[in-house]
Every structure is written in structure tokens, then in C-alpha cells.
Amino acid sequence: MFGDRKAGLVERRDPVAAGDFALVKVTVVPMCTEYRTFKSGHKGEGFGHEAAGEVVKPGGSGRTKAGDRVVVMPQYPCGKCAHCLAGEYIYCQHTMDVHKVTGSETGTATYAQYMIKPEWLLVPIPDDISTEHGAMACCGLGPTFGAMQRLAVDAFDTVLITGMGPVGLGGVINATHRGARVIAVESQPYRAALALKLGACAVVDPAGPDPLAAIRDLTGGPGVDKAVDCSGSPQAQRLMIDAVRRRGSAAFVGESWDPLTLKVSDDMIRKGLTLHGSWHYGLADTPRLMGIIRKEKARLGMLITHAFPFGDVQKAWDLQVTGNCGKVVLHPWE
Hints:
Layout: E1 21-30, H1 34-39, E2 51-57, E3 69-72, H2 82-85, H3 98-102, E4 114-118, E5 122-124, H4 131-134, H5 142-151, E6 158-162, H6 166-177, E7 181-185, H7 189-198, E8 202-204, H8 211-218, E9 224-229, H9 234-243, E10 244-252, H10 264-269, E11 274-277, H11 286-295, H12 297-303, E12 304-309, H13 313-322, E13 327-331
Parallel strand pairs: 6-7, 6-9, 7-8, 9-10, 10-11, 12-13
Antiparallel strand pairs: 1-2, 1-4, 1-13, 2-3, 3-5
Helix pairs in contact: 5-6
């Protein structure tokens, strides 16, 4: 990002793998929230937290071999603490200084042709799943999959999902795959239409005259059984809390640093509401998520609305700013 919403490619040294780190040739880069810094005129390089590709040089652990197709899991956790050992590495508090550990100057960005990663964070992509669909095991399906695991969403539930960006749209696939009925909240026309196409039974406009009443009408009065916020907006989060029925549960997935007013007596004690913070999913659940990806090829084809060669990153970010897209991917070798 060169500032003033200008973007392009820069040349840097190839990363160097060492120890249990493998060198990965990145072939698919799912684009996520980086567009927000592009929109604000930010300058910088080294972006991204999602990638899938092919192992070029395995590490020393013996977990991978050259040619393996893999999904690159996010962050650089220690691999030794209780969270990492339980597969909940996303909550690790002892992340590594990759450049110090490996001696490599580069390799942590996913918007790149090559990157380095500890082998235990490289998830194999089954032969019958494309690399592009396998890449949805990161933020395309991953965050809402983890939230719905926590919420134990099933076919008896009506689930509210606020925010139909790529993460929320992936949530529609996750919830309906489990047999749940989905009510989406979104005001952007393109994304509202895509939510319906992916399986939501209704989309409520949060800018409408009374969105809470509309949601309650769709449930016959009591509110939804479970809910997931993917917007990161305090207004949407407040709507979510109000829309969940008594003894219901909800999960926060959308990142937000803005304050949310929570009324302990009304929202928690007297309503009996259970709230979860959910960032990702545990490694033990990876086979189940890959199973969903295998069965949902058609809808993943609808979720991924646009693909660009690497040199067109400017066009890709420009598109994301408009909101007229689902999940957008880059192909670094095109």
C-alpha cells in the first residue's frame, strides 16, 4: 500500500526456512480485512493472515513433504503452551519472533509468493478438494465454524448472523449445513442478495424502521435461539443481544475496539444469556471442517465471487471497498 488508495507489488528477498519451519509456495491468498487500511490511505507492506499453497522445502519435523498442498493456519504461536498443545493455538500468549528464530528477513506475509510456517500449522488439503476451496478453512469458513462449534448449532435452531461480509456469508453456509434456519442482518444490497442465495431464509435491514421487531416476527415472538456477530459494529452487537431469546446464546466473531453497553441484570442474569468470544477453531476440529468444505463445493463457488492475479491487487482492494463482493482471492503466480 503506497498510500492514498494506491497499491502494487514490491520485490523482496525470498524467505528462508529453518528448523521445523517449511517453505510454502503461496498459490491462493484469500483477502480479508486488509482492505480497511487500504481504504483509510494506509502505507505499508507485508499484509495478510490467510494462505494456501504447496510445500517447497519441508521442515525438520517430518510432518510435510515437498509437493504437499496445505492450508496455512494464522499466527506464529509457541507450540509448547497449554493452548497450543490442546490445538487452541490462536489463544497462545507466547508468539514467536519468526525472524529471530529462523534468521529470515521475510516470510510472515501471506500477500506474497513464498512464506514460512511451522509444519504443525500446515493443514493438508485432501486430494478431492481444490486449493481455492481448501483456503476457505481460514477466514472464509473458519471463524463462524468455531463459533458454531461453541454454540452447538443444530437443526433445531434459528440462528441470527449479523454482518454479511465474507465471514458472515461463510456463517450462512456453516449454519445451514448443520440444518439450522438462518436470519441474516445486512444493509448492503449485493451482500444481502448473496446471503439469500447461500441459504438464509430472510435478511433484515438494520437501517429499517424496527429491525428487532422484524427479527422477532420471523421467530414468532421470542427471538432467535442462537446468534453470531460478524460485523464488529456495536449497533449490530446490541441488536444481536436483544434479538436472542431467553436462555439463548451468542458469539462475538467480528473484531471491534468500540465500546458495547452490556446490561448485566437485563441481558445476562434475568435473561439467562450466554455470551462467547470466538476467534477461530481448534486443530482437532479440522477434519470436520474439511468435511464441510468437501460437501459444500457448490456454495463455496458462490461465496468466492472474484479472483485476481497478484498484479491486480489494486483492483481487488478497490472492489472490496465497494462491498459488491463475497470472498475475494488473489493468485500470486498469475
